[in-house]
Amino acid sequence: MIYSNYNLKSLNSFGLDTYAKTFIFIDKENDLLDINDTxxxxxxxxLGGGSNTVFVNDYFDxxxxxxxxxxxxxxxxxxxxxxxxxxxxxxxxxxVSFCAKKGWWGIENLAAVFGxxxxxAVQNIGAYGAELRDxxxxxxxxxxxxxxxxxxxxxxxxxxxxxxxxxxxxxLEIIWKIRxxxxxxxxxxxxxxAINNKIIEENLNISTPLDMVNLVTKIRNSKLPDxxxxxNCGSFFxxxxxxxxHFELLKKKFSSIPSxxxxxxxKLAAGWLIEQCGWKGKRVGNVGMHNKQALxxxxxxxxxxxxxxxxxxxxxxxxxxxxxxxxxxxxxxxx
Length: 335
Ligand code: EPU
Fold this sequence. Notes:
- Helices cover 23% and strands 29% of the residues.
- The protein is an alpha+beta fold.
- The strands form 6 sheets. The protein has a 5-stranded antiparallel sheet with strand order 6-7-12-10-11.
- The longest helix has 19 residues, at 305-323.
- The protein binds uridine-diphosphate-2(N-acetylglucosaminyl) butyric acid (EPU).
- Uridine-diphosphate-2(N-acetylglucosaminyl) butyric acid (EPU) binds next to strand 13 and helix 6.
């Protein structure tokens, strides 16, 4: 289905009231034929759940391709593993719930991450000590201009922190489905302090993936605003990585600074840095940083692109001034 001048308000979790020149819904394989020289523009965007996309203008002068193909298929099952395909238009959390209810381990710590399946591979979603890449096998993509299907295995995607090669993809390439390998053997991932502390504090018995889904969902819901109530895109910035020497200097000045050792340096908590700069719970016009998680920018109703970009800029500037740390946006800004 192709539409002109289509409103995107209900299709982006920030709740921005933007219109797109051309909008194409893709529900089944045959719909891919709708993507052609006539329907495409100079600017073309693939939209999943719209939970990481911020449209900063009232009008997007291009084509948006919305992927809504559904399905979860079991490809292979053994005594202790299962391989399944999830189609890109599935809501990610529905896939997590489906697998957890079956008793399959691997993605339970990624519960309640909003967005659709296609997008989770693009940015290698991660939360509570797990990342998609841990159980991602491959994905099937379609290039509508070349009319070409292609399979990428895990190693091809060069996964990193909130990164895959699709992040910098210049060509239009639609992720059609992803393939995951999950375990039927109990594999509790309680490496993340917030999870482990909660298990100890509340003396919880985690024996199924569904127990973990419930715990993670509870923790997330206690901190992260529901986009249906307060528009947001989850973390607005990435957690920055600084060098060991830079970290040593920061540690001397700010002894309680949270940090995590990573391969290429030390990862800092952007939420903490932003809070220290006084932005937590602060509202500027129609936007602000959430009062329970300073890393999340929220839309109080009628946010305009300019307000979003201005607040982001002010935050970047104050974090740079106080800590000499550059923040990088995690959300995808569409101009
Ligand atoms: N912190 C503060 N103030 C705040 C927020 C956080 O001091 O306002 C501190 C916390 O006390 C903690 C540290 O910062 O010491 C880390 O906080 P948290 O565990 O809440 O996680 P995060 O680093 O802020 C990341 C992901 C989230 C993911 C959580 C849990 C990024 C950019 N964000 O947030 O992902 O859910 O870890 O694993 O990596 C998302 O990508 O949209 C997202 C929500």
